[in-house]
Amino acid sequence: MGRWSRQLLTLPPTIYLLIFFAIPTVIMLFASFRFPGDYGGLAPWYSIEDGSYAFDLTWENWQRLFESTIYLELFVKSLGYAVITTAICLLLGYPLALMVSRSEKKRRDLLLLLIILPFWSNFLVRIYAWMIIFSPTGALTMAVNSLLDLFGIAPVSLMYSPTAVIVCMVYVHLPFMVLPLYANLEKHDPALLDAASDLGASGWQRFWRVTWPLSLPGVYAGSILVFIPVLGMFAIPDLLGGTNAIMIGNVIKQQFIESRDWPFGSVLSIMLTIATIALVWLGTRSGHRVKHG
Amino acid sequence: MLEIRGISKKFGDFEALKGVDLHIGAGEFFTLLGPSGCGKTTLLRMIAGFEAPDSGEILLEGKDMVGTPPEQRPVHTVFQNYALFPHMTVAQNIAFPLQMARVQADEIDARVQQALDNVHLPDKAGAYPAALSGGQRQRIAIARALVKRPRLLLLDEPLSALDAKMREQMQIELINLQKEVGITFIYVTHDQGEALALSHRIAVMNQGKIAQLDQPAQLYNHPNSRFVADFIGQCNLLEATVTDSDRHHADLELHHIGPVRVSLAPAVTVTKGQRCLLTLRPEKIRIARNLHALVDETHFCGKIHDTLYLGDVTVYKVELAQGILLEALLANSGNHASERFAVGDSVEVAWNSSAGHLIAEP
Amino acid sequence: MARGRMNWLKLFSTAVFVFLYLPLLIVVVYSFNDSKLNAEWVGFTLKWYGVLFDDTEMLTAARNSLLIATFSAAVAALLGTLAGMAMSRLRLRLLPALVLAPVAMPDILLGVSLLILFIMLNISLGLVSVILAHITFCIGYVALSVQARMGSMDDSLIEAARDLGASPWQAFSRITLPLLAPGIIAGALMAFTLSIDDFVVTFFTAGVGSSTLPLQIYSMVKIAVTPEVNAISTLLMVVTLLLVTLASRFNKHALRGTI
């Protein structure tokens, strides 16, 4: 490939993504050391009145992060939500992926399609569906409460609870878990299981000694694909969690939209970025270890 | 018609070609034969124009081709996996080179039909490559490469994707086609049987160099090195020292076995005391239970070590003294079990003095 | 024994499928319910769809969504095709990271960092800012689709074209481009769908008066749950279903997205 065609291919997308992805991320890092403007947002670098530039930086925003334990607790809580959601997705998704990978070749595509299809309906529509289900007048809440009433327990509200948030997050992210798992399980040679049982392994032993260890790369891939978007989630806790279930994403949104304290919002965003990069790094490393012994 | 002078090429630290010289005549069916990594494909890609040599010249009818892009060379290639354009019909595939050369539309149609007739697939014009069998794709790829009448047709292991039966049939078709069109073919393969069957001349390549260039029968009967003897067909290689020689014969001492006398090919000269290799093709060795059944001059006694019954022939590995195995091939022409030998049988092994070919060891 | 386990697996999987589809079914069913509440079934009606088509804000949002998706998909198709080809043919380090990161990062990060950028550059928040933002995450999907298509394409096809007399440009336009077309179309349709679907990035980069369908739904459900939302949700589901089916005709893995 010639030098010109090489440049023609790489430059336009690289420049676009530098301007609209890499540079904004760097600016955000700077913003985390800057001051809020007079009317919120970010203090300008350039003053229109006297034409002077101001580049002074401050640790204030970062100090605020560590001043109280509120924000660290918030991170821990968000990580907790992400762990629980990922674990439930794995618990629901693994048997599903296993079932699809062991069904007849002809039916697999259809089953896979059925798993993916809900994923393609609008994100907000899927949240909205759970708002209906969890609403106080909804059938589910009514049924649960009438059941609780039989045992003399006071009625509960499912809406605006951590449970509602987790159920909805599992619902939204389940396909992200199933697909990499399926992609992995599908490649397993069925003769391996025959060989294992031929060598005396029982059903459970076959699963734990053969299928599960071989599927670990898929488990890691699926877990990362669920964990990362859940960690940065704000719409689901916003709509289903009320004030009870707040995640880091909600506070970031609050800083940028309601409080308009952009420097501190940037601090939280940078923390989330670091957490994400660390997770991806950890995940790919574990994935590599599994592959290479 | 094609002259290659001192071509060298390095890929990083790997020397793919180390100064290759070749002269290929017009109308020749020429084969580059060698194991993978010997440089044959690199050489072919240079003639086509996909690679540039580090040094050397490629002269096509006297004009240096180095630096000319592939589309401007009167050279077309039949690719290993055919490289038929999957989004075009057979007719569109064959028309492609003509369109690139801006041939008139009505002439294109006629020439495409003619090309299809030539490869015996006149009614496949509208089919897509995916709907064709391996052999049909092969024929279309050849038709496409020939439709513009190149000066030179390059074929890169074109039969390797076909099954054994189909391959034999395509070999015959290729020979006939080449005779018909009279275009020079340069054929690359690692299959020595294919090379022997198809070619007028073969260049055996090894580690970026031409090891031997000759006609098929010459290569088979008079290999010039251990590599060529080993690469082409099955061969027994016996180490020996020359004890005496004249213009037509040499007396040898086969190491661990004993003295033999061999006739020398015209080009081979050896001197007394020289170490050399005696090559013996398995089919030229005879085995019998007792000596009087054999008429050949050279004979040794041995013991059957292994037998491999292959239907038409049986391979016997005979142990001569001290663990030296000699492979012999016997046609199963009769029905008598008495002609067969079992492991452990003591036998006499014999060959004609002109059966062996001598290779001087450096 | 093994059969028994397979049956348990099937039973469990069926339950998960119910979990996946029941919520969506509820949304669709209530969109035809003749009641202001998403509670008991009262009777069949199409009046919520009628309300929808009288709602000028909703119609503007729909028009905005289509406009944004069309432009984003078109530009992302162009840039993504270049990126996908470059990534499969050249050994690059920067570009693959730039292409994949916006897809892999939580979308809120892309949203807020672009918000800062647009304000700094004095780009007013509106359709243009949303389109610029959507292109950023759409490039990755097109690039991956094109890269996969390039990966399954035999290099010798291009060599064959050159060998048979085509110039580099002719080889590209007659061979490479037609063979890549399904990958480009599938990627562009996916980009279109994802753009229509996007809530988070749009939330941060859209200004007043450039509301999209997801933003409109968000502001409606924030206030009160009404069956009009069910109606627009149902329509959106039908549209994405059509788009995704179309995309999968060009690339059978398009449905899986990047996963």
From TrEMBL, chain A:
Biological processes annotated in GO: transmembrane transport
Matches recorded under SUPFAM superfamilies: MetI-like
Location of the protein in the cell: Cell membrane
Membrane spanning stretches: 15-35, 79-98, 110-133, 219-241, 262-283
UniProt key word Cell membrane: yes
Keyword entries, A-Z: Cell membrane, Membrane, Transmembrane, Transmembrane helix, Transport
Domain ABC transmembrane type-1 residues, every copy: 75-283
Regions annotated as coiled coil: none
Entry GO CC: plasma membrane
Primary site of residence: membrane
The keyword Transcription regulation appears for this protein: no
Bilayer disposition of the protein: Multi-pass membrane protein
Superkingdom, natural source: Bacteria
Pfam families per UniProt: BPD_transp_1 (PF00528)
Gene3D superfamilies xref list: MetI-like
Family membership noted in the UniProt record: Belongs to the binding-protein-dependent transport system permease family. CysTW subfamily.
Name of this chain's protein: ABC transporter permease
Automatic annotation (TrEMBL), chain B:
GO cellular component, one term: ATP-binding cassette (ABC) transporter complex
Keywords assigned: ATP-binding, Cell membrane, Membrane, Nucleotide-binding, Translocase, Transport
Stored SMART domains: AAA
Pfam families listed in its UniProt record: ABC_tran, TOBE_2
Domain ABC transporter: 2-232
Reactions catalysed, as given in the entry: ATP + H2O + polyamine-[polyamine-binding protein]Side 1 = ADP + phosphate + polyamineSide 2 + [polyamine-binding protein]Side 1
Keyword match Ribosomal protein: no
Superkingdom to which the source organism belongs: Bacteria
Gene Ontology MF term list: ABC-type polyamine transporter activity; ATP binding; ATP hydrolysis activity
EC number, UniProt record: 7.6.2.11
Function of the molecule: Part of the ABC transporter complex PotABCD involved in spermidine/putrescine import. Responsible for energy coupling to the transport system.
Assembly with partners or alone: The complex is composed of two ATP-binding proteins (PotA), two transmembrane proteins (PotB and PotC) and a solute-binding protein (PotD).
Family the UniProt entry places it in: Belongs to the ABC transporter superfamily. Spermidine/putrescine importer (TC 3.A.1.11.1) family.
Designated name of the protein: Spermidine/putrescine import ATP-binding protein PotA
Originating organism: Mariprofundus erugo
From TrEMBL, chain C:
Keyword Transport set for record: yes
Main location: membrane
CDD domains documented for this protein: TM_PBP2
Gene3D superfamilies for this protein: MetI-like (1.10.3720.10)
PROSITE patterns per the UniProt record, alphabetical: ABC_TM1 (PS50928)
Subcellular location: Cell membrane
Transmembrane stretches, start-end: 12-32, 66-87, 94-119, 125-144, 179-209, 229-247
InterPro entries: Bact_Polyamine_Transport, MetI-like, MetI-like_sf
Record-annotated ABC transmembrane type-1 domain positions: 62-247
Biological-process GO terms, alphabetical: transmembrane transport
Gene Ontology, cellular component aspect: plasma membrane
Bilayer topology annotation: Multi-pass membrane protein
Keywords associated with the record: Cell membrane, Membrane, Transmembrane, Transmembrane helix, Transport
Family: Belongs to the binding-protein-dependent transport system permease family. CysTW subfamily.
PANTHER family xref list: PUTRESCINE TRANSPORT SYSTEM PERMEASE PROTEIN POTI
Protein name: ABC transporter permease
Source organism of the structure: Mariprofundus erugo
